[in-house]
TrEMBL record:
Residues 32-70 form the GGDEF domain. It comes from the Bacteria. Gene3D superfamilies: 3.30.70.270. InterPro entries: GGDEF_dom, Nucleotide_cyclase, Rev_trsase/Diguanyl_cyclase. It comes from Anaerovibrio slackiae. This is Diguanylate cyclase.
Length: 80
């Protein structure tokens, strides 16, 4: 299990990546509406199998989309 500080740093970095992507797209294509959602899962907390981790990250992605635009969500038990 990751400590609380590491998890907060990861969440911060995921949010920064999401916002960077959106701002870059808006700057280069101002006539196109762009938003980004990000779902991620912590390794090895939820396994080592890449396919399983990708599926869990996908569930987190849909949770992020459910909560609104430009969000990042970490996978947790009970999502999806």
């Amino acid at each position: 299990m990751h400590d609380q500080y590491s998890t907060k740093v990861l969440i911060f970095l995921a949010s920064i990546c999401t916002l960077f992507f959106v701002n870059k797209c808006r700057a280069e294509c101002p006539d196109i509406g762009v938003t980004a959602s990000l779902g991620y899962v912590l390794h090895p907390d939820f396994g080592d199998d890449v396919a399983v981790l990708a599926g869990l990250a996908d569930k987190a992605l849909y949770e992020a989309k459910h909560h609104g635009k430009n969000t990042a969500v970490e996978y947790r038990e009970g999502i999806g």
